[in-house]
Amino acid sequence: MTTSEALRRTPLLADLSPGQIDALAERTLQRRYRPGEVLFYEGDPCHGLFVLAEGSVKIFKTSPSGREIMLAVESAPSSVAEVPLFDGGPYPATVCAIGEVSACLISKQDFRRVCLAQPEVALKILAVMGQRLRQLVSVVESVSFGSVRQRLATTLLDFARQAAGNSFTMPVTHQELASRLGTVREVVSRNLSRFQAEGLIQIEKRTVTLLDPAGLEREAETEY
């Protein structure tokens, strides 16, 4: 995929003309990342906007003790690192490739020129930032008020909805799932085993089947 094609597929840049896309592509760096490779770290100076051409990344924060909490997963075609483009600060979180990832880096100066020329792009940025804020509020609410068991049930139901069925291939490892839930891998494994022993789910290798979706819904809605 050429850089122009990658930029053209991104919803954020959909209003740009072919000429504008090609001009931007000439100043854009396209990079490839291996699974587990970091695109940028929390606290790094912002060099620009990353447009995901292929693959998925996870966005996460790390505590001083090394514990991770996942904020979101983004898949191509989309973008990451919008906030520091405007506030002048460093990257607020770390972004890491989940699998093979191809990404395009648009410099801050070039992207600001695009926003000045096409106000619709700036409005789309606001929509993306609003979505990010809602995700963050949801994460804070879940970690603050829900138990690990409740958060795990909610996540399994979300995976099933994304797969449009009660059976799905687990899209993340236990460690990545723990990071998303704000806990450790051992706790996730233990609660998955309990769900299976209680007849709520069945796990065969990486395939998870919801045997009792209504029961999981009750777990997800339980207040502690």
How would you describe what is shown here?
By secondary structure, the chain is α+β, with helices and mostly antiparallel strands. The radius of gyration is 19 Å and the shape is elongated. It is built from nine helices and eleven strands. A four-stranded antiparallel β-sheet has the order 1-8-3-6. A four-stranded antiparallel β-sheet has the order 2-7-4-5. The N and C termini lie far apart (49 Å). α1 packs across α2 (18-26) and α7 (174-181) crosses α8.
Q: Which terms would index this structure?
A:
25% strand, four-stranded antiparallel β-sheet, alpha+beta, elongated, 224 residues
The number of helical segments is 9
Question: Low-confidence spans: pLDDT under 50, at least 5 residues?
Answer: none
Strand content is 15-25%
Order of helices and strands: HHEEEEEEHEEHHHEHHEEH
Strand order of the largest sheet: 1-8-3-6
The CA-CA distance between the termini, in Å, is 49 Å
Q: Using only CA atoms, what is the Rg?
A: 19 Å
Shape: elongated
Percent helix, as a range, is: 40-55%
Global structural class: alpha+beta
Average pLDDT number: 86
DSSP strand count: 11
**Main beta sheet strand tally, sense and closure:** 4 strands, antiparallel
Helices and strands in order:
Blueprint: H1 3-9, H2 18-26, E1 29-33, E2 38-40, E3 48-54, E4 56-62, E5 68-75, E6 78-80, H3 84-87, E7 94-97, E8 101-107, H4 108-117, H5 119-145, H6 148-163, E9 167-169, H7 174-181, H8 185-197, E10 201-204, E11 207-210, H9 213-221
Antiparallel strand pairs: 1-8, 2-7, 3-6, 3-8, 4-5, 4-7, 9-11, 10-11
